[in-house]
Amino acid sequence: MGVKIKNILITGCSSGLGLALTNLYLEKGFKVYGISRTKPNIENKNFIFKEFDLSKLNEIKLGLKDFIKNDIKSIDTVFLNAGMLGEIKEVTKLATQEIKEVLDLNLFTNKELLDILASIKVSTIIGISSGAAIKGSKGWASYSLSKASLNMLLNLYAKEMLDTKLLAIAPGVIETPMTDYIRFDIDDEIFTSAKTLKNGPIQKSFEAANKLFETLKRKDEFESGSFIDVRKI
Question: Does pLDDT of 191 surpass 70?
């Protein structure tokens, strides 16, 4: 009898880090279940795609419970990767509704998914976090609030999902349309963090995916519920 292929679940699998993780795990022989609004151009018998708009909070449990509980059943690693940046602007000029839109996708979507995941066998859950969760930079209010909240959300679920390792991991700066917007479209005299990003190291999505893969080999070193910045380990 052959070795059973391990299942991976990735949200936001159609671009950026999510797509890179999808390709990496498929190359390594895992079965990957992907959730996003658009299907990536991947033809692989071990890739199972579920089209779903994760911003529709009230439909997540209804739309994804059967897919996760009955189609996948048992998962080795989950990457809660889907997210958004929101507009870079001064917090005094930021409407509550604008913050809520980012919180809905970056935080509450993951709360809905974690509720489903808590009912099945999952070895590891990774929330894609950011250094912005720890460091408050001018202009980043929505994103920073959402990622700081995600860190705590995973910490709290770790207290209840005792058979699952939950980690919030900041993968470092990745070259994506999101970071291009910050680096090239933002006035870096007003928002100095944009200047820092322009002048600092930046990695391709596949490089970040590889670093995450290597970091997860060391997951037993970290307490469940921890925040890890891959640049500092």
Answer: no
Cα 116 to Cα 64: distance, rounded to the nearest angstrom = 8
Q: Could you give the residue ranges of the DSSP H alpha helices within 91-164?
A: 96-103, 109-117, 141-158
Selecting among 14, 36, 129, 130, the annotated active-site residue is 129
Tell me what the pLDDT averaged over the chain comes to: 92
- The amino acid that residue 191 corresponds to is F
pLDDT in tens, 158-171: 999 999 999 999 99
Amino acid, res. 8: I
Q: Catalytic residue at 143? A: yes
146 tagged catalytic: no
Annotation says 129 is catalytic: yes
- The H-or-E segment that residue 162 falls in is none
Q: What is the DSSP string of 41-106?
A: S---TTEEEEE--TT-GGGHHHHHHHIIIIII-EEEEEEE----------GGG--HHHHHHHHIII
Q: Are 69 and 119 in contact (CB under 8 A)?
A: yes
Question: pTM here?
Answer: 0.92
